[in-house]
Specification:
Largest sheet: none
Number of strands: 0
Order of helices and strands: HHHHHH
């Protein structure tokens, strides 16, 4: 009985298995390198945190802090208000603009006079008449009735001029102090403030001259 064909068939089967094994071996070794992917950027640890802490851990801690603040009755605003700074700058601009107008108004009053100065002058005139009602020289009557009234008017106008000067200077130097503003000071505000300072200086000089009789001296009575 001849058994040679079965032997050759067995050898062929073993050769095919060996060939298949060698052919699939490279696929088995290269599979891990193909399926391996780089870590996601979202898993990278954030800057400034301890090693081993991931972005998910940081997010979880933020959520816990927000919940804790809500439980304590605190309001947590995670989104900045884009109009907050603009409203603060507008409020500052309104204040400085109003102060500049006030400075200019005070400067005008210091030159034209105010009702307060008139009231003080009339009071001084009345007091002078009372003092000289019992008699007195002409020079004394001029000084008590008219001189004191003029000096009182000059004093009141000088106070208004000084206030105009101080308020105007405050408006001009305000941007250099305090919290910086996002918007520069308006040009009209500076112009009105400069006008107030100028009127204040002019009114102050005139008031000082009138108070010390530098421009117009008191009249003198001949033979008084």
């Amino acid at each position: 009985m001849n058994t040679s064909p079965s032997t050759s068939t067995t050898d062929d089967t073993e050769e095919k298995k060996a060939a298949n094994g060698t052919a699939t071996a490279p696929d088995a070794t290269t599979a891990p390198s193909v399926t391996k992917q780089a870590g996601s950027p979202e898993d990278a640890p954030p800057d400034g945190v301890a090693p081993g802490v991931t972005a998910a851990d940081v997010t979880a801690m933020d959520v816990d802090a927000t919940d804790k603040a809500a439980e304590d009755g605190l309001e947590v605003d995670l989104t900045p208000d884009p109009y907050a700074d603009a409203e603060a700058a507008a409020a500052t601009g309104v204040g400085t603009g109003a102060a500049a107008v006030v400075a200019a108004g005070l400067g005008i009053v210091s030159l034209s006079g105010a009702w307060t100065g008139r009231v003080v002058a009339e009071r001084e005139t009345l007091m002078g008449q009372i003092k000289t009602s019992g008699g007195g020289s002409a020079a004394q009557q001029i000084s008590e009735i008219y001189g004191d009234a003029w000096h009182s008017t000059a004093l009141v106008n000088g106070i208004f001029a000084l206030l105009a000067l101080l308020v105007g200077v405050f408006v001009l130097v305000r941007p250099a102090f305090g919290a910086p503003s996002l918007l520069p000071q308006a040009g009209w505000v500076r112009s009105v403030a400069v006008a107030g300072v100028s009127l204040g200086i002019l009114g102050l000089l005139i008031s000082v001259g009138m108070f010390f009789d530098l421009f117009v001296a008191l009249p003198s009575a001949a033979g008084g």
